[in-house]
Design goal:
Blueprint lengths: L8 H19 L12 H6 L2 H4 L4 H9 L8 H14 L3 H27 L2 H13 L4 H5 L4 H22 L3 H15 L8 H10 L10 H28 L11 H20 L8 E2 L1 H4 L9 H19 L5 H14 L11 E3 L7 H17 L6 H24 L4 H11 L4 H13 L3 H14 L3 H13 L3 H14 L4 H13 L3 H14 L4 H13 L3 H14 L4 H13 L3 H14 L4 H13 L3 H14 L4 H14 L2 H14 L4 H13 L3 H14 L4 H11 L10
Helix pairs in contact: 1-6, 1-7, 4-5, 6-7, 6-9, 7-17, 7-18, 9-10, 10-12, 11-12, 11-16, 13-15, 15-16, 16-17, 19-20, 20-21, 21-22, 22-23, 22-24, 23-24, 24-25, 24-26, 25-26, 26-27, 26-28, 27-28, 28-29, 28-30, 29-30, 30-31, 31-32, 32-33, 33-34, 34-35, 34-36, 35-36
């Protein structure tokens, strides 16, 4: 067991505070950063379960569903909690990530000190972890909450294991297992943590004594069982959600080659952290015809890894931290090296969040040993360490600015990588959501030129549809379906376009196909329900809209359209409840306020209808139904000036409405403006020669009897 160094508590507290403050200073700008249209939408601001905040229903969903190709219930619960506390304010979600990273740095220092008994090397490892630019992606990307949260449970497990190693006992081991289980429920990255604990048994804990091997391995069996179970769930989730490309598309030699190159590339980025990007394209996917797995680069990487391994093994007796740190790095990296490919990236900076701690341990404890007995080197080493940490902080601050918004993230990725179809596609999404449709179209086209896929073609189709280029959009969606016939997203989007074109049958067919593929997807339920209500099948539309609201209780447009369906079905009181639901979620929803007035009118509650229409007109002065109703009520009350004001505005909005012409004529007649009244009655009859009220009113006018009521 390591000997604990005696350091005043105030020094320990000062270092912990310093670590937290350093993270806070570097990452303070994130409170002003935005969500990005890459996972943040699926994880937070467009996720119907997360948007509701914490609830029993949400917790059940988190633990029973493998959403986005992962079973990660605590990740979902953490996002729900932040929504509960701060709503959908992006800066708050960023700040939580930064706070967790600061906590991780402090806990890492305390855990390493408990494990090794060495104060300053442990502090240096924690500081390097806190400030290195490779950490920026995990902290600044809201969706990577799973990195910083699983990191919290990782370092907490190390700290708990240090306590168990000092005084072994079933309850302390149970605490280690509980923390590991919590970490695995955040992200399966921790599946190799039991192996890291076995490494720590060798150094610094020195528990590998003669005859102890079987006992130490047996001690880890419950932990290994947790890891095996988590691995099985992760593989099943990723395979079931299509996150794993067909293994035939990437041969084992290709995956092994990329793993070797990536392991070395991460070391290079640790030493020289530049040209960092959110996505590194896999060369075998970008240029498959020219890709050779066993290039000079791959062979060189294999030799370099072998050299480092042999060097660490040779020094295992004198410098055991070298082999422990090196194997920590490799063991923790294995799940994300792409030997079983998940996603299309070649590598990712975020994958180094925990593995690189092993390299820092090897480096810092190596430097400590280098100056032992050489007091003249202590000051230069301290100065050099400070310089490195300040440089890391400066580089992290510079890299952090890249994450201010989606446009900067993806433009930077395009600047530092080649063939990055992913960055083109997501830059397109960012521009599209800002309304810059022509610029978005260019980015989607660029992505398709590099690597055509159903996703990029579908996004391009959406952008073309928003520009009113429906036939071009349909052609792109059909191309997407030729690549992926079972893409629910493409079928749903094609349904939207057919609906815009008025081709109801085809739209209905596409929505139904999307729901066959993904029965619990909100969008096609909402779109199909709205389509059916609009085109005369309110009962079928009601069923789909109610299902959309079951899946997303905060979907205000689904609730609003459900109210429309219920009014059409002659159930205005139920419609009133639907509109009240909308206005509780969005008090400024003018259309729902206007529709609420219609429902009150149908329910025979004119006073409530008038109040609702007046509120609607304050929010939206062009609410046609409100103008009609309020104008008519003012007419009946004898407030002719107000009636004329509302009805003339209605006529300007609906210039070909015979009803509006008749209503204005009626007010003119009551005001004894018979010339104006005659003009409007005649206009109503030109628009609708069979308009009974206009005929009657014109006849009365010609008989010199001013009409007293619009007579609808």
């Amino acid at each position: 067991m390591p000997t604990q160094s005696v350091t005043p508590r105030r020094v320990t507290a000062a270092l912990c505070l310093g670590l937290a403050l350093a993270v806070a200073l570097v990452y303070a700008p994130v409170v002003g950063y935005e969500f990005i249209y890459c996972d943040d939408d699926d994880y937070v601001f467009e996720n119907p379960m997360v948007r509701q905040g914490l609830s029993a229903h949400g917790a059940a969903w988190a633990f029973t569903q493998s959403h986005l190709a992962n079973w990660q219930p605590l990740t979902w619960l953490s996002h729900m909690l932040v929504v509960d506390l701060f709503g959908l304010e992006a800066g708050a979600h960023h700040a939580v990530n930064a706070g967790l990273h600061a906590a991780n740095a402090v806990l890492l220092f305390l855990a390493l000190r408990a494990l090794t008994g060495a104060f300053w090397p442990s502090g240096a490892v924690a500081a390097l972890f806190a400030l290195h630019p490779l950490r920026v992606e995990s902290v600044a990307w809201v969706s990577e909450r799973k990195d910083v949260l699983s990191g919290f449970f990782f370092v907490a497990t190390l700290w708990a294991y240090a306590a168990h190693a000092r005084r072994p006992g079933p309850w302390r081991l149970a605490a280690v297992a509980a923390l590991l289980a919590l970490g695995l429920a955040v992200k399966p990255m921790l599946v190799t943590l039991p192996l890291v604990l076995l490494l720590l048994d060798a150094w610094p804990l020195r528990r590998w004594r003669r005859g102890a091997a079987l006992r130490l391995i047996a001690e880890k069996v419950p932990l290994l069982a947790l890891s095996v179970a988590a691995s099985a769930v992760a593989v099943a989730s990723q395979a079931g959600d299509g996150a794993m490309p067909d293994l035939g598309m990437l041969s084992f030699s290709t995956r092994l080659s990329n793993a070797l190159v990536s392991a070395v590339a991460y070391l290079g980025k640790a030493v020289w952290p530049t040209r960092l990007a959110i996505f590194y394209p896999h060369p075998a996917l970008v240029a498959p015809s020219s890709y050779s797995p066993w290039s000079a680069t791959a062979l060189g990487a294999a030799l370099l890894l072998a050299f480092f391994t042999l060097l660490a093994l040779r020094e295992r007796s004198r410098r055991p931290y070298l082999i422990v740190g090196w194997l920590w790095y490799l063991v923790m990296l294995v799940p994300v090296l792409g030997l079983v490919q998940v996603g299309e990236q070649a590598m990712a900076d975020r994958y180094t969040y925990l593995p690189m701690i092993g390299i820092a341990v090897a480096a810092m404890f190596g430097l400590r040993d280098a100056v032992l007995g050489r007091p003249r080197l202590l000051r230069p080493l301290a100065v050099a360490t400070v310089i490195v940490l300040v440089a890391c902080a400066a580089l992290s601050a510079r890299q952090l600015r890249v994450w201010e918004n989606g446009q900067r993230v993806f433009e930077h990725a395009l600047a530092v990588t080649e063939g990055n179809y992913f960055a083109h596609n997501h830059l397109g999404r960012t521009l599209e959501n800002r309304g810059e449709l022509a610029a978005a179209e260019e980015q989607y086209e660029a992505a398709i030129r590099i690597r055509p896929s159903a996703g990029e073609l579908s996004n391009l189709g959406n952008t073309l549809a928003k520009q009113g280029r429906y036939p071009d959009a349909v052609a792109r969606f059909e191309q997407a379906l030729a690549i992926d016939p079972d893409s629910a997203d493409v079928h749903s989007n094609l349904g939207v376009v057919y609906g815009m074109m008025g081709d109801v049958d085809r739209a209905r067919e596409r929505y139904r196909r999307a729901l066959e593929l993904e029965p619990d997807w909100v969008a096609p339920h909402y779109n199909l329900g709205s389509l059916l209500v609009r085109y005369g099948d309110p009962e079928a539309g009601r069923r789909h809209l109610e299902r959309a609201l079951e899946l997303d209780p905060q979907h205000v447009d689904a609730a609003n359209n459900l109210g429309v369906a219920l009014v059409a079905l002659g159930r205005p009181r139920e419609a009133i409840a639907a509109y009240d639901r909308v206005l509780a979620l969005d008090p400024e929803h003018a259309n729902a306020q206007c529709n609420l007035g219609i429902a009150y009118e149908k329910a025979g509650q004119p006073a409530d209808a008038l109040r609702s229409f007046e509120l609607a007109l304050r929010r939206d002065p062009v609410c046609i139904q409100g103008l009609r109703f309020v104008g008519y009520q003012r007419f009946r009350e004898g407030d002719l000036d107000s009636a004329l004001l509302h009805l003339e505005k209605l006529l300007r909005l609906a210039p070909r409405s015979a009803d509006a012409e008749n209503d204005v004529g009626s007010v003119c007649a009551r005001k004894r403006d018979f010339t104006g009244a005659q003009r409007h009655f005649e206009a109503a009859l030109r628009l609708d020669p069979q308009h009974a009220a206009a005929k009657k009113n014109l006849a009365q006018l010609r008989a010199d009897v001013a009409p007293t009521d619009p007579g609808r």
